[in-house]
Amino acid sequence: MKKILVTGDQGYIGAVLVPMLVHKKYSVVGCDTDYFVSNKKKFSYPRLKKDIRKLEKRDLEGVDSVVHLAALSNDPMAELNSALTREINFSASVRLAELSKQTGVKRFIFSSSCSVYGNKFKASVTEEDSVNPLTSYAKTKVQTEKALLELSNENFSPIILRNPTVHGYSPNIRLDLVVNNLVACAIANRKIILLSDGRAWRPVIHVKDLSRVFMLMIESQRLLVHNQVFLVGENSQNYLIINIAQEIHGQLPECKIVFGDKKSRDRRSYKMNFYKFNTKFPKFRFKMNLQKSISELIKFFKETKLTAAELKSADYFRMKKLKYLLDSRKINKKLYWI
């Protein structure tokens, strides 16, 4: 039985991925600071309530693969403190990979981002195109990718997944992601509110499909994945943000599309070409497209009776939750629990 360490196991992706791994009988160990999860929650697998900056060799004993999801997890949150973002997203990630290599971990699967491309005006972007990170978050992803790939040898396989914008239901759902946010706004406010002009491109992927890709990286032959960078997704799932809003309006016709008072051009825009992934893994099928995800989210938000007040809650927004923990002195300026 393979032993898998998942950092950020209680994040948006981890909360979907880990049950899949447990269901497939992997021996899973979770690791999370638990900023975004209740202390009362019960778990069916062993966990380390630990900051990734504090992980040690003994935490990696017997681990076959590390799935590294933990990070300051989006552009606005990372801009709060760029030095701290570098410490957590880059330095701690590279240190964890080095410890993993030293303790005999075979695969280190890193959750990167399509945002490393910044603003690309090409018809479509591939793994071979140059990166152009515009934010602290994206810059740390690029730096970490480079450092991880340099660690590879015959016994240690770094694997880089450049993820599109993730969407869909998770037990630890986020509303600071474009699809989730627009659907939530539609349900709570009866309006689909765009804060930009909607003309930026975004590739998107459902959280369940992305979780299945992480499992694929664990299970695939080494030759297919060793020291590889993959853009993960389907070409059909590249959307202009205005088109995402129109898809939501199609399922909620009573909700009008409106532009915020300060609408502007989003400087991040990128349209991906996923040829490499789909050629390497021709049998893999993505199961949840944007339309299915919108339906799923509408059902969830209606069942939970999401309100406009809840839409402003720290429970659904990573940056708001961290600010709350800081302001209430539950964590210190270095983001360690007090």
Structure description:
With 338 residues, this protein is α/β, with parallel strands linked by helices. The protein has one domain (3-327): Rossmann fold. 36% of the residues lie in helices and 19% in strands. It has 11 helices and 12 strands. Strands 3-2-1-4-5-6-10 form a 7-stranded parallel β-sheet, with helices on both faces. It has a 3-stranded mixed β-sheet with strand order 7-9-11. Strands 8-12 form a two-stranded parallel sheet. Strand 1, helix 1 (14-23) and strand 2 form a beta-alpha-beta unit. The protein starts with a strand and ends in an 11-residue tail after the last helix. The mean pLDDT is 94.
Strand order of the largest sheet: 3-2-1-4-5-6-10
Rg value: 19 Å
SSE succession: EHEEEHHEHEEHEEHHEEHEHHH
Q: The CATH topology, please?
A: Rossmann fold
What's the CATH superfamily, by name? NAD(P)-binding Rossmann-like Domain
In the CATH hierarchy, what is the class?
Alpha Beta
Find the count of extended strands (DSSP E, 2+ residues).
Answer: 12
CATH level-two architecture: 3-Layer(aba) Sandwich
